[in-house]
Structure formats: structure tokens, C-alpha cells
Amino acid sequence: MTGNYMDMFSLKGKTALVTGANTGLGQGICLAYAQAGANVVGVARRSCRETAEKIEAVSGHFTEVIADLSDLSVIPRIAAEANAAYGRVDILVNNAGIIKRCDAVDVTIEDWDSVIEVNQRMVFFLCQAFAKGWIQDNKGGKIINIASMLSFQGGIRVPSYAASKSAVMGLTRALANEWSKYNINVNAIAPGYMATNNTANLRSDEQREEEILSRIPAGRWGTPEDIAGAAIFLASEASSYINGFTLAVDGGWLAR
Predict the structure, then answer these.
(1) Which residues neighbour 217 within 8 Å (Cβ) at sequence distance 6 or greater?
(2) Beta 246-249 vs 184-191: how paired, if at all?
(3) CB neighbours (10 Å) of residue 155?
(4) How many domains does the chain have?
(5) Phi and psi of 60, rounded to 5°?
(6) How far is CA 211 from CA 63, 162, 218, 250, in A?
(7) Does the structure show a pLDDT above 80 at 232?
(8) 254 lies in some domain
């Protein structure tokens, strides 16, 4: 390559679609992409006004799409509204997810299915929907799935979440095997223990919080800002020869 290597990390002129964009990691990724130069389409069940305000404050461009990601029938509308906003979507981030904590012996079919629907089925069919277009126009694209520490481990009292996030890592590999030849990079980020809505119950349990922090070499909970660099890297040309990999952003949790 000639020129400035930092240009490889720029997302200028790209459009990124991020699910679960109204709060937490999704909001952090949206803001990071806007600061890297991308137009951002945020998908969420509720208003993304706070995300929009943060992006407007850095002179970025943001459009929200309100959709219930437990319903696969919304996919064509999501794609249509995203394409109408800025033209072609270049980057897809499957961040939205739900978790239901319960002893395994007490999990209901309804609760199991609700987690799998959002965390696994929606992820695959969103990937499929955008990949079809990218293969057809032969311009490639970037898919970043948000996995979890429970893509590597079993966890406690979250069997449906562990199953779905293990599936996300396997799916990331499987799709990379098929789509890398079309210049579609499929990778994942596995956040460690982050200070988000999903971990509010853990952080409010003094004993459980102490147990978790004692195992994190960095000695603290992660933040949405900690995900930003990895998210930009995997969405940029700097990662053009990285395929099917799940990058842990965990403060050293897996190394312990």
C-alpha cells in the first residue's frame, strides 16, 4: 500500500447498519462509526434519540429504523429503509440481543425461543439478506456479529443465551467459509463483562460483582468505548484479510 496507513481505518463514504442502537454497546459502536466517517443507520425497538444526539454532536449522520427484532418479517423493511437513507449499506453489525436468567431446570419453551429468535435466527437472516445484495453487485461488505464470553464458556443460569452466542461464533465461521470469496468479511467481537443493561443485575449483586472483577486482569468492567477500536478495525479495510474470527474484548478474562 502507498500513502498513509491510517487511511485504512477510515469509514468515510461508507454506511453502517447497527442493531440494538439505542443504548449500551450498540450506541457506542454507532458513535465510533460516525466519528470514523460513516453514515449510520441504527435499528432498535425503541427510539434512538440519545444516540442521534451524540452523533449530531460530532457532526455525524444518523437515521433510525424502529423495528422489533423478534420478528423476522421486519427484515425487508429494515433493508429498504436503510438503503433509502444513504444508499448501499456496506457494514452490518448484529449487536441486538436479549438475555433471560433462570435455572436450567426452570427454563420455559417460550423464554428459550424468544432468546434464540433474536440472538440467533435474526442474526443469520439479516446476514443473509445483506449478503445477497453484496454478492449480486459484486462490491463486497463487512459483517460484524456481537458474540460473548459465553461463546467460549457455559456461564451460569443463562443456557439459552450461552447456546445462542455459541451459535453466533459458529455461524461467523460458517458464513466466512462461504462468503469470503465474494469480498465479504464476516467476523465477530466477543465483549467481556461490560457495564450495560444486560449486566445490571450482576453489578447490583455485591458478591457476584466481586467474583467477576477478581477474575478480570484489567480489574474493571468494560465500557462501550472499549469496543470502539475493534468495531472500527473489523469494519475497515485494515481487516480485509481477516475472515471468520471472533475477537475477544474482555480485559483479559479468557487469558485467566
Answers:
(1) 251, 252, 253, 255, 256
(2) parallel
(3) 15
(4) 1
(5) -90, 180
(6) 40, 19, 14, 15
(7) yes
(8) no
Query: Residue 160: inside a domain, yes or no?
Result: yes
Report yes or no on whether pTM surpasses 0.90: yes
For residue 76, tell me if it sits in a domain: yes
Contacts of 126 (CB under 8 A, 6+ apart): 19, 75, 78, 92, 94
- Catalytic member of 86, 161, 182, 193: 161
> What domain range includes position 240?
11-248
Rounded Cα gap, residues 55 and 4, in angstroms: 26
Please give the Cα distance from 202 to 209 (Å, whole number).
6
* Mean pLDDT along residues 145-160: 97
Q: Look at residue 255 and tell me if it is in a domain.
A: no
- 5 belongs to the catalytic site: no
Q: CA 90, 93, 97 angle in degrees (round to 5)?
A: 160
* CATH number of the structural domain spanning residue 99: 3.40.50.720
> Tens digit of pLDDT for each residue in 185-218?
999 999 999 998 778 888 998 998 999 999 999 9
